[in-house]
């Protein structure tokens, strides 16, 4: 991770340390002490300082998967309603809101500590009025998304992952796009096939550092 194109995204530190499954970053209430720190990242040509904490995914840096996603996909612009699914401490949600000044961004996570950090980081980035950190049931039922962005929690298991993705993909607006980053060795290619089989045509738009960047679309009618 030593050479990243100018104006895209690079992680702030070499090497990677992600929160392990034992740290329960996808638990509602992390059992670890809330020890905070800051990490720096460059996303789409802008410098960010994020507050992170124990018990939250990739607390020590911008993780490689998220960095690959943000490097391989151009930033959105203009208006729209976006979902950052599994937001963690909010780097994707904050960066989208900064780049798309008319966008509304829902930042969803099951981890309440992560949501607190996302709110803090959105405030620091000046986008707290357009980033909504909420638990999954906190998104109003009538909200539809123009785009979904996610580095999904693969370790919750295939059955739960598929259930989660179908729940949120059903809320894509007609013509909406979902962007995922998944490790090749964690089922990135099989997930691409599965998404297409479920009625969301999916292409691979990037591949780097052992990760697949996937783009799935909703070509069907609006859900009732």
UniProtKB/TrEMBL annotation:
CDD domains: AdoMet_MTases. It comes from the Bacteria. One of its GO terms (molecular function) is S-adenosylmethionine-dependent methyltransferase activity. One of its GO terms (biological process) is methylation. Residues 47-214 form the Methyltransferase small domain. Keywords: Methyltransferase, Transferase. PANTHER family: RIBOSOMAL RNA SMALL SUBUNIT METHYLTRANSFERASE C (PTHR47816). This is Methyltransferase domain-containing protein. It comes from Kribbella pittospori.
